[in-house]
Amino acid sequence: MDSGDDSPEGFLDVLKERLSDPSWASKKGLEVVPKRLAEFEAEGLVDICHQALEVLGTAAGKEEIWRDAYHTAGILQYSLQKVKSGSATVNLAKQHLRIIGNSVADNDTNRSVALDALESLIDCFSTEELTTTALGAVFNLCYDYSPGESQAAKLRLDYIVASYIARERIPESGIETAGELIALTLESLSPSELVDDTSLSTFSYLLDAISPPKAVFRAGLINLPTDQILEICTPYLSNNDFRLKLPPAEAERLLNILWEIEPADPSVRRALYQALDHPVDQQDDEPSFKITLLLINGVCAISTTEAFSETYDLHSEFMREVTDKVLSLYSGGGSSLLAPSAICACTMLGNLAISDNVCKEMVLLCLHRPLIGILFTSQEPALLYVTAGLLRHLAFPRDNRMYLEDAGLIWASCHLLGNPSPAVRGEAAAILCKMVDDDYGYVRYYILEIVQDTTFDPPRQTILELMINQSLAPSGPLPSTSMRSVNVEVGRAIVAMLKSLINTPAAHTKLLRRMYQTPLVAEPLKRLARQQIFAEVRSEAIFGLGLMLLSAEGTTSFLAGEHDNVGLVDSLRELFAAESGGNETAGVQLQRDRMNALVVISGLRKHGADTMDAPLKERVETVHLELAPFMASNDPLVAN
Length: 640
Prior knowledge:
Main location: cytoplasm
Low-confidence stretches: 215-222
CATH class of the domain at 1-155: Mainly Alpha
Number of helices: 39
GO molecular function, one term: guanyl-nucleotide exchange factor activity
Distance between the termini: 99 Å
CATH topology of the domain at 1-155: Leucine-rich Repeat Variant
Organism: Lophium mytilinum
Keywords: Cytoplasm, Endoplasmic reticulum, Mitochondrion
Structural class: mainly alpha
Subcellular location: Cytoplasm, Cytosol; Endoplasmic reticulum; Mitochondrion
Oligomer: single chain
Radius of gyration: 36 Å
CATH architecture of the domain at 1-155: Alpha Horseshoe
Largest sheet: none
């Protein structure tokens, strides 16, 4: 760049000509550009500088070959120095940012030169005219470049960018790039950094942009693209450890956002419910679909924390809004598919229903009525599961049960025993179990009342018969070990009923005999007594069998089943060879199980001598002789 370029205009013409021909990138001449630009700027020829910088930036954006040339000629270094010093005017700084951003794109050599200026580039975010260009330059510098991503994480670029979004300092045109910068920063954070206070503040800033705290008033509010900002939130909401650390107030903001964006289309709602019920099988990667799922999971996760129950109660403004939503669920009838946010409402209420007083208050508010309506009409397992869980909580106080039964809870629970979902069936059985806990009236009801639901086979079963048959029916595995098993809950219900009848006056003997006439009544307990996984459940089952075998009628009922009774006796025998492992609690439980096992063996020998088949009778006699030392040192009484 020598002939015809002494004048500023001549220099500019030659520069444009050279940059239009990529072959010049390998030739000498560009190294004079930084010097000439500095001279023009010193002379006040800002327009010439602007035009020259503009064509330089454009060329680097179009042809990769110029990127190496700019490094060799010192043009990249010159622009970096101008940005770092902050000496350029805003208009010129924007062009320097263009040169830097285009020069470092997919060029690790140039990135290594520019990385030292990362903080200066980030500082340009604060100048409105430079924000979008600076975002692009920083993205090109860091993206897919490990040193750049590491430095971004060290500077906590995620927090910086989110704070600018919250303060409406990033225009809509820059939101996508801002989100990509946050995403690449998150990928370089350690697991502990992902859930630290800075990450929590970053997330809060993002929510501020679309759902400002109620105490904040912002004039001239810019309508930022909610969908894009929510997409930026995806990595945070996908992290369960992060969700559990969110402060309770964020549940309020997340739910308000969910209420605004959740779909009205029944087909989309149904797909959301299916995804909630089978999260591993989720196939829909559409951003709005995914973020709706994450919002639901986020709200539910926050509401499980102790901080949530300490912050909110039924009288909180937010929870009053939630209860109003629940009460209005069926104001227009129960035929329409409920919004998936109903899951959040039921989960939050369930997590607040942790005391008898709160549960009683919920029933006084008549919250149970729309909830029971859901059990009768909904086909969505995810919603049925959380709704049944809440209603089970409401059944804990005995004072509530009359109102729950009057509203149809028992029949709704019977209806759910036929649901295809093992988790839903388990919760239904748990409700039925809770209703008979220390409550003779419902024990009698279960033994005598005929189920009117004609979908079950055989027809005209009592409630107890239905429970037994459904617990013995084939069932798929539960998605989580924390979920309730229909087999376990029905077994517990039978034990509760036996305790209620055996520990009451003789006037109830007739009802107990009627219970023993119920087909297969001992079978759920036999199954649970033989399983080895859940020790507490096994203990309850052995206790229940011991109660049955205290009488001849109970023994007859025990022997009427189809279970391998010989195998059961052998499993009880193994208790006397078991060790507690030095655990005091386990030792006490083992001793109790042994005492109840002795009751079972003694009961069979005493009341079943004439009705046991030969193999069982032989095994009982053998085990009885083996356990004679234990028999002598323990009274044959059931140990609860």
